[in-house]
């Protein structure tokens, strides 16, 4: 009798704990990529978290899926997301496979862009806090499966993930793609959203950050002119500014980045053309030897 009473008392606790879903297929990706995790049927979108960060949940082919951004610092191996459907909680597996990114060596004439002064560093610290707040934004919003348009027509001069060296000194990996284009070329929003940050930054130059909802943020750097402001809603294809070379840049180009659940991921994953096997903006060859930011 005592055993039955103890079992009844512990049963709600056991049910409340997340369990690893039996026979759930692993979503496979790599550092800097996006894991597409199929979710169990639910009348409402399940709540999903990855390492404490809320995750974008959307519909694909009539089913719920979680789009999980994997940071460049992620170690290869097994990982998991935590799912709460409202009726049960479980853990679903992710498999992160290795990916080695190329090196890129860039020479800059302006040495302050490599070794900033004390005054510069104070400014950089203030701006880094603004950038972090923008990229960590999570605005609950039901959005369709995100397929982006290209923000500008040009040539991909630096791909995502490059291990970078400025004047021989190692720096953070390239967290976006660089698209070389003539100065003044219009830059367009690739997907609807709301501008959450805009201004001039020491390294990034004139920059715009757009919140598309559910932790999906895009950023646009080194712009010549900005024609939008924080709080403004933008539609797909709306001009947000023009190509320039402000900040740490060796020539006119757009640095385009994507943050998903506060992880920097490859923008090519979201581009409609890339999803069909296209590797660059649809105007010219994507191969170039020039080095941008």
Give structural attributes:
293 residues; mainly beta; Immunoglobulin-like; Glucose Permease (Domain IIA); 2 domains; six-stranded mixed beta sheet; 3 helices; 39% strand; disordered N terminus
Helix-strand blueprint:
Blueprint: H1 2-16, E1 19-20, E2 27-29, E3 34-38, E4 47-50, E5 53-54, E6 56-60, E7 63-69, E8 77-84, E9 89-96, E10 103-106, H2 118-135, E11 155-158, E12 163-166, E13 169-170, E14 176-180, E15 186-188, E16 193-201, E17 205-213, E18 216-226, E19 233-234, E20 239-243, E21 253-260, E22 263-265, H3 272-275
Parallel strand pairs: 1-9, 2-9, 10-12
Antiparallel strand pairs: 3-7, 4-5, 4-8, 6-7, 8-9, 11-14, 12-13, 14-21, 15-20, 16-17, 16-19, 17-18, 18-20, 18-21, 21-22
Describe this structure in words.
The protein is mainly β. Helix content is 13%, strand content 39%. It contains three helices and 22 strands. The strands form four sheets. Strands 11, 14, 15, 16, 17, 18, 19, 20, 21 and 22 form a ten-stranded antiparallel β-sheet that branches. A hairpin with a 2-residue loop joins strand 6 and strand 7 (63-69).
Short description:
The chain contains three helices and 22 strands.
């Amino acid at each position: 009798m005592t055993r039955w009473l103890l079992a009844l008392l512990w049963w709600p606790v056991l049910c409340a704990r997340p369990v690893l879903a039996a026979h759930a297929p692993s979503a496979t990706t790599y550092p800097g990529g996006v894991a597409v995790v199929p979710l169990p049927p639910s009348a409402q979108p399940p709540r999903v978290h990855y390492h404490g960060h809320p995750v974008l949940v959307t519909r694909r082919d009539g089913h719920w899926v979680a789009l999980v951004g994997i940071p460049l610092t992620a170690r290869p191996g097994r990982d998991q997301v935590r799912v709460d459907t409202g009726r049960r909680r479980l853990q679903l597996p992710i498999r992160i496979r290795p990916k080695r990114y190329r090196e890129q060596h860039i020479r800059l004439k302006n040495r302050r862009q490599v070794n900033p002064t004390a005054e510069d560093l104070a400014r950089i610290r203030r701006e880094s806090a603004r950038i972090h707040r923008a990229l960590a934004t999570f605005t609950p919003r039901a959005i369709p499966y995100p397929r982006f348009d290209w923000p500008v027509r040009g040539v991909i001069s630096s791909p995502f993930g490059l291990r970078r060296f400025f004047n021989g000194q190692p720096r953070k990996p390239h967290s976006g793609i660089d698209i070389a284009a003539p100065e003044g070329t219009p830059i367009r929003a690739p997907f609807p959203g709301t501008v959450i940050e805009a201004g001039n930054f020491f390294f990034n130059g004139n920059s715009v950050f757009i919140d598309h909802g559910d932790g999906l943020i895009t950023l646009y750097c080194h712009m010549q002119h900005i024609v939008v402001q924080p709080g403004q809603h933008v539609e797909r294809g709306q001009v947000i500014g023009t190509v320039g070379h402000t900040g740490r840049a060796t020539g006119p180009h757009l640095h385009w980045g994507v943050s998903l659940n506060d992880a920097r991921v490859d923008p090519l994953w979201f581009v409609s053309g890339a999803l069909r096997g296209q590797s660059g903006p649809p105007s010219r060859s994507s191969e170039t030897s020039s080095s941008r930011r």
